[in-house]
Specification:
It comes from Edwardsiella tarda (strain FL6-60). By secondary structure, this protein is an alpha+beta fold. It folds into two domains: 60 residues, no CATH class; 52 residues, no CATH class. It is built from five helices and two strands. It has a two-stranded antiparallel ribbon with strand order 1-2. Strand 1 and strand 2 form a beta hairpin. The longest helix has 32 residues.
Length: 139
């Protein structure tokens, strides 16, 4: 293989593990086919969720990758003791914020449609929201 061109790491490892006499006996077409096969094998992964998509955007092409699965690496990453607690706290705060936002949006839609679930009981959020824009509450 021509070492001048940049190869993916998997292809480089493949040629390092291949017998040099066998590699020398391969034609250019055989090398290209083997490289494509190695690259195709490394793209498939053991993730439960593996989403890879590309999309055009302003005369360029971008991609996004979302992987989810169990960490099977031999050596776990080193983190301070408080790191896991901080990540858990941030996730909980984020979920609470999203839940509160959805509930507030649903309440505002309910109030805008003048739907009363409990007769003559209101939290006052809709009235406060309408007072911000100079409209008096209409109850």
């Amino acid at each position: 293989m021509d070492t001048q061109t940049k190869q993916p790491r998997a292809v480089t490892y493949f040629y390092q593990s291949l017998d040099p006499d066998v590699a020398a006996g391969l034609s250019a077409e055989q090398k290209r086919a083997l490289e494509e096969a190695v690259i195709a094998m490394t793209l498939s992964s053991r993730h439960r969720i593996d989403i890879r998509h590309g999309f055009p955007f302003f005369h360029a092409r971008f991609y996004f990758v979302f992987l989810f699965g169990r960490d099977l690496r031999r050596r776990p990453r080193e983190h301070p003791r408080w790191y896991d607690a901080l990540i858990t706290l941030l996730i909980v705060i984020g979920l609470l914020f999203c839940t509160a936002s959805v509930l507030l949006a649903l309440y505002m839609i309910k109030s805008a449609l003048h739907i009363d679930i409990f007769k003559d009981y209101h939290l006052g959020v809709w009235d406060w929201f309408m007072s911000l824009y100079g409209n008096p509450p209409q109850r």
